[in-house]
TrEMBL record, chains A, B:
Keywords noted in UniProt: Amino-acid biosynthesis, Methionine biosynthesis, NADP, Oxidoreductase, Threonine biosynthesis
Pfam family, one: NAD_binding_3
Family of the protein in this entry: Belongs to the homoserine dehydrogenase family.
Record NCBIfam families: PRK06349.1
Homoserine dehydrogenase catalytic domain boundaries: 141-318
Protein name as catalogued: Homoserine dehydrogenase
GO molecular function: homoserine dehydrogenase activity
Organism encoding this protein: Acetoanaerobium pronyense
């Protein structure tokens, strides 16, 4: 049995999810790799990078390290899964890993959206794979669908609910007649919103995600500073009521559209018809509609966040790389 | 520039769609293969099998042949795309192609559902690929999602609207208060239903599709004869009204569920809550919900039939094979 050895950077919400799924589904993944490739392979975590080795983790101590060099210098490690988040040291680690001939998988939307194709370039130069399905809309396999399933199409528009926190807040306001502040409080109490919720409710999180999808669909780099962006802080009970009275719903949409050769991106609350497929996406769910010339309109919906849903998307990338090494 | 040469069997609705997309997107596909693999490759149709060479086709005559042996004996052809449909000669052609070391792609749900894993077995024995995304739910990338995106999950249930004709009829009955007969007539006038619509409205078509999904999700062969199946002929205006009055919708669902270790499959009209994601899938659209342990519930929606939508799914399989040869 050949072992595909991987390292996981970070053991937070998503990192623990990845560790758990890889443990619990070890046999299933082995079978699936065999079915797909005819090869006897199993995926094994060899190292996990954590910040404080003295903290108590539910993991074999042997696996843990505080030193990224331990991972970088280990030639048996073929895949590095970056789940620290944030700009640095995540970016440095990913670049170093690629230069050391390791494939990289990440869920780090910020780095991908802001790095202007740098990571893709380094991956290409070093002939390694760089995958990031989990960076947009959690379990919703939107990146694979754009890259593979819709490959014979020209995409004209992508429109999505890609932030669960704001969709939860708007759903709560719509279905339970709550004010923005009440709905935000409820999201915070349930752990759907952070104590500083600005990245979600002011639209930065959605902006990073639509920038990533737009780059894939339209093959253009995007200047994040130039994108029109409006959050949901100002939405009132009256706005919600007025929309309902005209059979509409207010949804926080991230959109990218090709118009006369130019890609126009926006992030803002939009009134959509209550029959529109995105109108009925409730709570913390995410959904993306993709319009294209041959396949018509496709909609994908699923959990946008959470330990296991996000980890499920990371594991699909690990499987994909492990099947092709 | 390396050419990946393919043969297309059949030049009907889907076959013409595939030919058109491959012509129109030649450059795009070349770019995408290069992006994905770094290889300079283009996909080229070398032969098209048709029944009557004297019929007028909108294709270079040089490409056409009435004789499958021309394709079988051409070692340059690496991919055979079977779009004749029906059991024979489609099955023979696919098996012969695989034995001649050619990869096979098909949209033939009947053969896959009824052949009890034979084609997969022959593909494995001959170390070629066998792909069939277009066989279930047209553009909806449900096979890729089960095989790849949800690989780190145990699936518990699949529930889908996988037949556009019956969904069109039920939508028409629900939204326009038509009788079954009136709605069927309208579907036939628009070309959504065939003059003999029994395979759609009695559920055989849905049965083949859920059998395929079930086999992929639960790794079990299915005895089609044993599946409980009920069509929609008996649905009355009163049934539709009663459902609406209790905030429900009647949808024709194909379902497969794992219960106590056993897989239970059914095809029947079901009353579902009007808030259920499948309740709002209208007209000839298809949609599939997949419930699993880590990713939670995922829904995929798109055009279930038609020349270009179905061909778009076939082209994604061609791309996938062409990227890996």
């Amino acid at each position: 049995m050949e072992k595909i050895q991987i390292a996981v950077l970070g053991l937070g919400t998503v990192g623990s999810g990845v560790k758990n799924i890889l443990q619990e589904k070890k046999e299933l993944l082995k079978e699936r790799i065999f079915q797909k490739t005819g090869l006897e392979r199993e995926i094994e975590i060899k190292k996990i990078l954590i910040r404080d080795i003295n903290k108590v983790y539910d993991v074999d101590k042997e696996l843990l390290t505080e030193d990224f060099e331990d991972i970088l210098n280990d030639d048996d490690i073929k895949i590095v899964v970056e789940l620290i988040g944030g700009n640095q040291p995540a970016t440095d680690y990913m670049i170093k890993a690629m230069k050391a001939n390791k494939n990289v998988i990440t869920a780090n939307k910020l780095v991908i959206a802001k790095s202007n194709g740098l990571l893709e370039k380094v991956a290409k130069e070093n002939d390694v794979r760089f995958m990031y399905e989990a960076s947009v809309a959690g379990t919703v396999p939107v990146i694979k669908v754009i890259n593979d399933s819709l490959v014979g199409n020209s995409i004209s528009k992508i429109s999505g609910i890609v932030n669960g926190t704001t969709n939860y807040i708007l759903s709560k306001m719509t279905n339970e007649n709550k004010s923005f502040e009440e709905a935000l409080k409820s999201a915070q109490d349930l752990g759907f919103a952070e104590s500083d919720p600005s990245s979600d409710i002011d639209g930065d999180d959605s902006l990073y995600k639509i920038a990533i999808l737009s780059k894939l669909a339209f093959s253009t780099e995007i200047d994040l500073e130039k994108i029109s962006k409006q959050g949901i802080r100002h939405i009132t009970k009256t706005d919600i009521e007025n929309a309902k009275n005209s059979n509409k719903r207010i949804k926080f949409l991230a959109q990218a559209e090709k118009k006369e050769g130019k890609v126009v991106i926006s992030v803002s609350p939009v009134e959509i018809d209550s029959k529109h497929p995105l109108a009925n996406v409730e709570g913390a769910m995410n959904a993306v509609c993709i319009s294209c010339d041959n396949a018509g309109e496709i909609m994908l919906q699923g959990a946008g966040a959470g330990s296991r849903p996000t980890a499920s998307a990371v594991v699909s990338d690990i499987f994909s790389v492990a099947s092709k090494l």
